[in-house]
Structures are given as C-alpha cells and as structure tokens.
Amino acid sequence: MQQRELGRSGLRIAPLVLGGNVFGWTADQATSFRILDAFVAGGGNAIDTADGYSVWVPGHVGGESETIIGQWLHRRGRRDDVIIATKVGWEVNADNKGLKKDYILRAVEGSLKRLQTDYIDLYQSHKDDPTVSVQEPLEAYAQLIQEGKVRAIGASNFSAQRLTEALQASEQHGLPRYETLQPLYNLYDRADFERELRPVVQQHGLGVIPYYGLAAGFLTGKYRSPADLQKSARGGGVGQKYLNERGLRILAAVDEVAARHQATPAQVALAWIMAQPGLTAPIASGSKPEQIEELLPALQLPLSADDLRALDQASAS
Prior knowledge:
The protein is built from eleven helices and ten strands. It is an alpha/beta fold. The chain has one domain: NADP-dependent oxidoreductase domain (TIM Barrel). Helix 3 packs across helix 4, helix 5 packs parallel to helix 6 and helix 8 packs antiparallel against helix 11. The protein starts with a strand and ends with a helix. InterPro entries: AKR (IPR020471), AKR_Detox_Biosynth (IPR050523), NAD(P)_OxRdtase_dom_sf (IPR036812), NADP_OxRdtase_dom (IPR023210). This is Aldo/keto reductase.
C-alpha cells in the first residue's frame, strides 16, 4: 500500500487515519482493542486521539481514549509500527485548556503516561487559542521536540489567517512548524476548507488529515429519512445539518458511484477525499470492528475522472 508523507515531517501513513474519539465512549475497551486490531490488520498505521476525548460523556474526565490506546499499544507491542497522533488545547476542565506554554508542557506528560509511550509522533494544537500569540505554543513544542517527547506538530481548527501567522512565526524565529492541518472536510462540508485553507496548506506543503470524513455518519447512507435519525445518539444533529435537498443529492451521486464499483457509500466518500489535491488522509471512526473493516477497502478504490466529476457536481454548494 502506498503511504503518504505528513507534510515535511518524515512521518509516512496509509491514506486513512483511525479516529479514536469513540474509544471509552461508544466502544468499550474490549471492542476498542478489536477495532484497533482490525485497522492495523487491514493496512492502517495512523491513530488519532486527543486528551479531551471523551470529556463530553457524563462521568468522564478526558483521556479515556488515550488510556485505551495506551493499553492496546502495551499489550500488542505495536508502538514501533504505528503513528500516534494526539492533541492538546481543548477544554478538559476549567484549569486544563488552551495553548499556553506551561500548560502544554504539563499536559503532554499526562498524554505520554496514558498512552504508555515515551514519545508522540504527531502532537496537535486541538484548536486555536486567541489568548496567546501564535509563537507561544511553538516554543513549547520546540522544547518537547528537543527532549524527544514529540516528533512533529500539527494544527486543528485554525483559521487560514492564524495558520499563516503561525507558519510565518516558525520561519522567522527558527521554531518547529505545523506540518499538518486537521480541518472539517467531507463531500458536504467542503467550501470553507477549499476557499480559505487549501491555498495555505498547498503553498506551505502541509499534510491534511480532515475529520468528519463521513459527515458524522451521514455519508454512509445510514440516514436517509427522518425515521432513520433514531438509529443513533447523534442522529438528531445529523438530521439538522445534512438531511436536506443538497445532502440527498450528494447521497444519490455517492450511491451511483458505489454501484459502479460494487463499493459502499462510505468507501466512496472516503476515496473522494483521498483523491483531492493536497489531502493526505481522512480520519474515520467506528464503534464496531465490522465498521472499520468496511471502510478499509476505500484504500484500494480508484475513482475515475467521471466519478470525481459526478461527486463534485452533486456536492457543489
């Protein structure tokens, strides 16, 4: 399987990243281990998580996903052949949030302990912190890279302006630069990235690992009517955003392409992202190993120019 480099980091991954947001939430430890096993067995090698996963669940304090991944790494002995990406900066609680240098240096120790590892391959700013300069977190990351605790850094949920300013600060002050961007991007949610962020990442050679590659499950074809929204806890939110004329038009095009390739809608939606200029690998998650096994064939799904044209036309806003 052909791997792709994450920016200029030297890190190489298969063009599909496993999202760890469900670990400890909708997937318990045993199920999470089976999901991770299935992903690696199918050729995947990059796993994305965050110290804030899954603080939104009642009774959770954050770090649940990292803990499960760390237990899996330890028990399976897989640390050397997978790329671990985690994040810092989301509000875990009132005293643990943001991108101040001292907080990053403290937070990374918790992530390293939970992940049961000495280093993080890709450490990402989970979201921009407008209360600090773009330079301050880079100074923290420089120290962590020097100490061998982090190999490369990335940004998530940054505006084009702040990302540009951060890249300029890296160059001007001799600091490590963000090698990746993790934005919202899929067949439905594409306009903002393509208009604002893609020119920046292409100019600077950043890798792009978008989240919500399946639009919160909508692009799997699971939600096609109001009645379908009862199928999961997040169905209501999916319906409000995606179950409309444009969303159904996109699904129809995805269905047509899937039928031509004897593929599933989810595989087509992910393969479309993989085929976009400047996109490295979409992030996708699942609460069952069977769901991950269904997604993996997207890695070997070559979409034709006609396929891409049909999907682009249907998803035009």
